Amino acid sequence: MWYEDALASSHAIILYLHGNAGTRSSCVREAARSQRRGRPSMETGLLQGQGRGALWHQGWGDSVGTPSERGMTYDALHVFDWIKARSGDNPVYIWGHSLGTGVATNLVRRLCERETPPDALILESPFTNIREEAKSHPFSVIYRYFPGFDWFFLDPITSSGIKFANDENVKHISCPLLILHAEDDPVVPFQLGRKLYSIAAPARSFRDFKVQFVPFHSDLGYRHKYIYKSPELPRILREFLGKSEPEHQH
């Protein structure tokens, strides 16, 4: 009852979709660290006046089932609808990190197709599609130049129906889009995030919406999952979410 009352308050809500190594507890840890620093960040969730919902994907943590792209997308759609049914006219933002960006763009594409888009989409450390990400992942560095690498490693991924095609999905999304990426990201290469931005920015679906790419210099050491530590993040979010006019910038 407390949670539903919080959703019905006058605050914006973030639906957070974690990455491959993420959990709900990692979301809470990030929020708590932000609160201890005393800064009014969107990352501090309900503690600072923004609602935040996070779910474990199928097969993660205490969630039952076997992970699949279709199942994860369906779960996210169900949670979004559950939040919207309880949040009135409050803004609802969708935030995906790493693998969660694939779930996020799948979700938002479906929401836009049924004409119920979120108020904004935030992609942190995104890739273009799972095939390019797998080929760029550090685990594949010693294998990617072997003959038959694509056939042995990459083809089974796509043939099993796992695509997470962010690069295709963004062409069908109609809502403000913010992309955050650290230059020293060792898991999802920075160039994949910039490439995704270069695909999204000129897309016709974004002609009436703002698309922004924010890089974080390698000297900051934010790597794959520490962008939330940036003291500039609250300002970036306020400025992005506080404006609605079309704008393409980086």
UniProtKB/TrEMBL annotation:
InterPro entries per UniProt: AB_hydrolase_fold, Hydrolase_4
Main location per the UniProt record: endoplasmic reticulum
Lineage: Eukaryota, Metazoa, Chordata, Craniata, Vertebrata
GO terms under biological process: monoacylglycerol catabolic process; phosphatidylserine catabolic process
Location relative to the cell: Endoplasmic reticulum membrane
Serine aminopeptidase S33 domain sequence ranges: 54-134
Function: Lysophosphatidylserine (LPS) lipase that mediates the hydrolysis of lysophosphatidylserine, a class of signaling lipids that regulates immunological and neurological processes. Represents a major lysophosphatidylserine lipase in the brain, thereby playing a key role in the central nervous system. Also able to hydrolyze oxidized phosphatidylserine; oxidized phosphatidylserine is produced in response to severe inflammatory stress and constitutes a proapoptotic 'eat me' signal.
Record-level Gene Ontology MF annotations: monoacylglycerol lipase activity; phosphatidylcholine lysophospholipase activity
Family recorded in the similarity comment: Belongs to the serine esterase family.
Residues forming coiled coils: none
Recorded catalytic activity of this chain's protein: 1-(9Z-octadecenoyl)-sn-glycero-3-phospho-(1D-myo-inositol) + H2O = sn-glycero-3-phospho-1D-myo-inositol + (9Z)-octadecenoate + H(+); Hydrolyzes glycerol monoesters of long-chain fatty acids; 1-(9Z-octadecenoyl)-sn-glycero-3-phosphocholine + H2O = 1-(9Z-octadecenoyl)-sn-glycerol + phosphocholine + H(+); 1-(9Z-octadecenoyl)-sn-glycero-3-phosphoethanolamine + H2O = sn-glycero-3-phosphoethanolamine + (9Z)-octadecenoate + H(+)
EC number, as in UniProt: 3.1.1.23
GO cellular component, one term: endoplasmic reticulum membrane
Keywords tagged on the record: Endoplasmic reticulum, Glycoprotein, Hydrolase, Lipid metabolism, Membrane, Transmembrane, Transmembrane helix
Catalytic EC class: hydrolase
Membrane topology, record value: Single-pass membrane protein
The protein's name in its UniProt record: Lysophosphatidylserine lipase ABHD12
